[in-house]
């Protein structure tokens, strides 16, 4: 039998997070390129961003054809959030003049393997500068295990980016994430929950 979903947040009623959602006016437009397999994952955080940020768009796909929106973005002020050797660190004070001109932030939503696949298949991304962080904030999202130590959920990565680019207060986004974690772990046996929330 299909579970009844909340009409607003689209989570199951027993994990509804509406009470924690706040509308946040972000100046930098966030474009999330989401691997199709992420959509069905209950613990996916991209949809939390879409519920909170007033200027956020999720585009599903894997390649140039799916992500044709990239052709319409301003090349000089759009950046891709991805750690590589050429990335500008958003938390580097020497880069502040570059950072304050950013108008669009592209984020790839998927496991490291799927994100890498999107990058390989979507050559349109090559036209944009990449950005990353020197110092990662503490990962708060322990309910979804990642293979790399430098992993953040999509929500955490965007919250930290917007904080560094436009001084947007990340607390309301972290509150929604905390609510999701609480709802997703509320029915776990204590010994299982302890593994996630230690």
Automatic annotation (TrEMBL):
One of its GO terms (molecular function) is tRNA-uridine aminocarboxypropyltransferase activity. GO terms for biological process: tRNA processing. It is an enzyme of class 2 (transferase). This is tRNA-uridine aminocarboxypropyltransferase. Belongs to the TDD superfamily. DTWD2 family. Its EC number is 2.5.1.25. The keyword Cell membrane does not apply. Residues 2-189 form the DTW domain. It comes from the Bacteria. Transmembrane segments: none annotated. Keywords: S-adenosyl-L-methionine, Transferase, tRNA processing.
